[in-house]
Every structure is written in C-alpha cells, then in structure tokens.
Design brief:
Layout lengths: L2 H6 L3 E4 L2 E4 L2 E6 L7 H11 L5 E4 L10 H10 L5 E6 L5 H13 L4 E5 L15 H11 L3 E6 L10 H14 L3 E6 L3 H13 L6 E5 L5 H10 L6 H9 L4 H21 L4 E5 L5 H10 L8
Parallel strand pairs: 3-4, 3-10, 4-5, 5-6, 6-7, 7-8, 8-9, 9-10
Antiparallel strand pairs: 1-2
Helix pairs in contact: 5-6, 10-11
Length: about 300
C-alpha cells in the first residue's frame, strides 16, 4: 500500500469491547552486519504489532550491498511491506535509476528519499539535495516518497525556518509524507508541526521515536544531530548509566508517556527507530495499545 493510502486509512483497534482509531505503526531497521537469524527473529517479534511497513536504511553511494537481500527477505519470507531508503549523496543518476528498478522489482511501493552523508572518498554525485532526488524519483517511477523532517532543525542548517523552507522544496517536489528525526521533547515536535503547517505544507508528519537504551547512545546521537534532551531525563540517564536493566526500563517508561501524548494529539502514525531490537519497542507498544485513555 502506498504511503498516502496508509495514512488516510482509519486503523480501528478492537480491544476489550472498545474501538479506537490507533496511529499507523512503522519500524525502522538497518541491514545486519551478518546475515544471521537473529535479525529476522527480532523482526518476527515486531510483526505481531501489524506494522504498516518496515523501513530499511541504506548507505551512501551504493556502499551497502546487503540491502537488496534484506529487503527481499522481509518482503517475501516475512511477508511485510517495505519502505526502502535511498540516499543520493555520491550517487549518479544511473546508480539511482538502477536501484529504483530493483526496488520496484521487489514489489515495494514506497521509498524514503534522503540526501545522506557525502562520502569523503568520492564526488558528491549528481544530486545535491533530497528535493532533487525526490523530483527524480517522481519523474522516473510511480513510487510513493517519504522525506525527512527535523523538529529542531538539520544540523547543517542555520536555523529552523531555513530548514522548513528546504522541507517545502521536498514536498513541492512530490514527497507524500514527512518522517521526523527522533526527539525527546514533544513540545518541540508540536511547535515544529505548527511551523510546517504555517509554511503551507499539508502532508502527514510522522514523529520518530527512539527509546533510550544507554548513556553512550544519547551522547552519540546528540553529538551528530540537533536533538535536545530534557533535564529531568538527563538526570535519570546519569543515575542509571551503570545499571542496564534500570536504563532499559527508563527508556521504555519515558517513551510510553511520550507516545501517549502524541496519540492524544492525534498524530497519524508513530515511526520507531528500533536499533534492530524488538524488546523496548514491543514493551512500549504493549503499554500504549492497551485500553485507550478514558475507557473504563
């Protein structure tokens, strides 16, 4: 099913005699370093939550040659729909067109179009920006295209308003849905959505969620992107930094509250960055997909 149709369809959950419209669930994974059963076992656990699709990351300049095999297995062995990533940095139009053909042969209908990191050891390629890639995909295929959004601005962008102007170029080029970078402060997401709407962008905006698993993880992602962490959460991360089980529980509990607030605000979907592990995401979903708020 194409992205626009996915988010237009009402997803009615029947639970303990109550009916409620739940947000569309999707999971992002990356190709495993070794093609072992562990990765697919984790995906099988996540399959129980009926995701709309699995989103698979892809390296710049065609440097991730295992992606096609993983996409094939997800589609044909696990019987799960796909959103294949496509980065244009370092790639030629020929490279991109070939990859698009492979994606279509797999039966995928959706792709997440990104600029990606420009490799140090090769030329920037034929595309400078994701908006150029999106326009190319729309010209060459019938694929539905997702784009990335940054609630606190892209790390290379001077300010949030300039970043939203770039986002408008992506949607004008044909992007159907926006998937945000992970964030920990819902107020920043809500403010971002309002600014995006004020800019005349009307496509669905899907929040990206990543559960906290370690202090090292948080330090890494905040060094690579504009992602602020609320002081109260930082204090608890510091408190549990040497206790993996308590840290895992902290990440789940925080994400449950975060997701419930987003659901209450009637977001169209939740996009989970799973880090190829099912446990935390499954625990979060077990909590938020219980009896809806207000049910007795």
């Amino acid at each position: 099913m194409r992205l626009k149709e996915i988010y237009e369809k009402k997803n009615v959950c029947h639970n303990r005699a109550f009916e409620w419209v739940k947000p569309v669930i999707s999971f992002e994974v990356f190709p495993p370093k070794s093609n072992t059963g562990g990765f697919y076992g984790e995906l099988n656990k996540l399959k129980e939550y009926e995701p709309a699709f699995i989103s698979l990351t892809y390296g710049a300049a065609g440097k991730n040659n295992t992606s096609l095999e993983v996409l094939y297995r997800i589609k044909n062995e696990l019987r799960m729909d796909l959103m294949a990533h496509l980065t244009c940095a370092g790639s030629s139009r020929g490279n991109i067109e070939e990859w698009l053909g492979e994606i279509e042969l797999l039966g995928a209908e959706n792709v997440l179009a990104l600029r990606g990191d420009i490799p140090e050891d090769c030329s920037p390629g034929d595309f400078r920006y994701a908006s150029e890639l999106i326009r190319f995909i729309k010209e060459k295929t019938d694929l539905s295209v997702g784009a990335a959004g940054y609630p606190e601005g892209h790390i290379e962008c001077p300010d949030l308003f300039a970043d939203i102007a770039n986002l408008k170029k992506k949607t004008d080029a044909g992007a159907d849905v926006i998937y945000t970078q992970l964030f920990f402060d819902n107020d920043k997401f809500f403010s971002y959505v309002q600014l995006v709407r004020d800019a005349g962008i009307e496509v669905p905006i899907i929040p990206g969620i990543m559960p906290v698993i370690s202090k090292k993880q948080i330090e890494r992602i905040t060094s690579m992107a504009k992602i602020s962490v609320p002081g109260a959460l930082l204090n608890r991360i510091e408190k549990f930094k040497d206790n993996p089980s308590d840290m895992l529980k902290l990440g789940i509990d925080f994400a449950v509250i975060q997701c419930q607030q987003l659901i209450d605000a009637e977001v169209s979907g939740l996009h989970f960055y799973t880090l190829n592990k099912a446990y935390s995401t499954a625990q979060i979903l077990d909590n938020i997909m219980g009896v809806p708020n207000g049910a007795e």
